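Summary: Need help interpreting a holo structure output

Steps to reproduce:
1. Submit the protein chain below together with the SMILES for NPW.
2. Request a joint structure prediction with the ligand placed.
3. Inspect the structure token block that comes back.

Expected: a single structure record containing both the chain and the bound molecule.
Actual: see attached output.

Input attached:
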Amino acid sequence: MLQLLTSSQTREADAHTIKNKPISSLDLMESASNAFIYAFKQDVPTIDSLISVYCGTGNNGGDGLAIARLLKENAYDRISVKIARFSAKESADFSANLERLKLTGIPITEITNTDVFPEENAEVIIDALIGSGLNKALQGDLKSLVIHLNQLQKKVIAVDIPTGLPSEGPIDPDACILKASLCVCFQRPKINFFFPESAKALERFKVVEIGLDEQFIQSQAGPWKYIEEKDIRYSIKPRKAFSHKGTYGHALIIAGYTETMGAALLCADACLHSGAGLTTACIPENGYSALNSFAPEVMILPRSELILGKSLEKYSSIAIGPGLGTDKEATDLLEYVLNFNKARIVIDADAINILAANTELLTKLPKDCIICPHVKEFDRLFGKSNSWWDRVTLALKKAKEFNLIILLKNQYTFIVTPDGDILINPTGNPGMAVGGMGDILTGMIASFLAQSYPAIEAAMLAAYIHGAAGDQLIQMNSIPPRYITEQIPALIKRFTAPD
Ligand SMILES: NC(=O)C1=CN([C@@H]2O[C@H](COP(=O)(O)OP(=O)(O)OC[C@H]3O[C@@H](n4cnc5c(N)ncnc54)[C@H](OP(=O)(O)O)[C@@H]3O)[C@@H](O)[C@H]2O)[C@@H](O)CC1
Ligand SMILES: Nc1ncnc2c1ncn2[C@@H]1O[C@H](COP(=O)(O)OP(=O)(O)O)[C@@H](O)[C@H]1O
Ligand SMILES: [K+]
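--- attached output ---
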């Protein structure tokens, strides 16, 4: 997993690299600027594009000056540089790069006040005004400049981070930010890129290596970790020779209601496709024939038997909630499952809403229980948050308090653990924003739990593979959830095979 850094940790990684590699800070800036150019060339291959580089006077601005010079060396020769000089300060590496830039003949304009902005006919704007050194919300002259640049509606490519976006912490919905169509960021994505509020600052990002000390970065403390394919390959176990259905556990799916039987079918079918040896669905009687025709491999536990106290001993995992409803019977079922207390459980959808209405049940959750709320379910359960940063911070607190794994769903799903980690899932795409998609994920988690994966791994494998299945169908505008299920077995097999 990639350890993500706060802006102050990034500064430490920067200083550590300069001291120990060793490399001068000016050479590190050159390396960062070269890495930017590499990504830029892929996005703007036309060398006669008109490019304007807007620079602040800190190190982000220093990058901008070096980038302008390197673009010229790479045959882009229709470049101009605009320096926003609203204060007398400049960083040493900015000054050094300004001297180098002056030798190239690239036109440089200084913007010292905002009464009149220089005319701008560039097709591409490179934003090197402020990077990770942002220390307050934009205001004054710089804010006026950013508002002006946003109004031009040009293609903007940001260096390291869009000007005005903080690297971490709550994103103010009213903040003034220079909106980028692409951000080329250095070494690690910024934590704030993973929150929906960042959509006002950037459309997409690319991460480029700039030569910071990886060992140092990985040894940094902090909850934010980014899941990589190699983590999945490392966790996932191939099926063994001489194994049989009993080897892979027996999952019980307690789900479905007259109007929402589909949720139970999708969930049970996804569990089956994710490798559980046996899958049983506990659904109302009016769903039996639908289940038998949709997924004949799945067995049935009559709802009436469970209500009468049928033992849960034989099940290696239990999923409860998809399409379950929130009536008295559903509440009793959840309580019964929680009282059993031995099962490896995943709680979703209506079962989360039942928890929200009966918060005393939270204390009955067994150790390493997984809940997988979407944002509304999460807020119903734990209260409203003002920002995603606050919401995930709250999840961290609740995961510790209740010894619980919280899988908070979104474009980037956050898996928050009782040990204080926040694992960010990178897979998935907006085609997956279709009802029933979460039911598939819950079935997958139940399946991995049944197969004896530790709970955090079960959550991680399910989230990653679920999203990766969606990414295999990226050519579809919207993805019916059952299409995800079809992808799962081959995808799991692929992750068990050598690279
Ligand atoms: N290790 C790495 O990743 C590497 C990072 N590198 C690059 O360095 C960048 C970080 O550079 P940095 O620390 O010099 O800060 P930077 O972003 O230029 O901003 C500081 C300037 O902005 C000003 N300022 C701040 N807030 C403001 C506001 N609201 N409104 C107005 N002004 C404001 C602040 O002024 P002050 O408040 O101090 O008066 C100061 O002048 C990083 O993003 C990357 O591009 C690479 O070169 C090499 C390796
Ligand atoms: N824009 C998106 N990008 C990536 N994944 C998404 C996106 N939208 C939805 N998903 C995924 O689809 C699932 C939706 O779950 P949920 O909202 O519970 O659906 P439902 O309740 O209809 O089953 C989650 O796993 C979520 O991560
Ligand atoms: K920037």
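--- end attachment ---

Reviewer comment: The mean pLDDT is 97. The radius of gyration is 26 Å.
Status: needs-info
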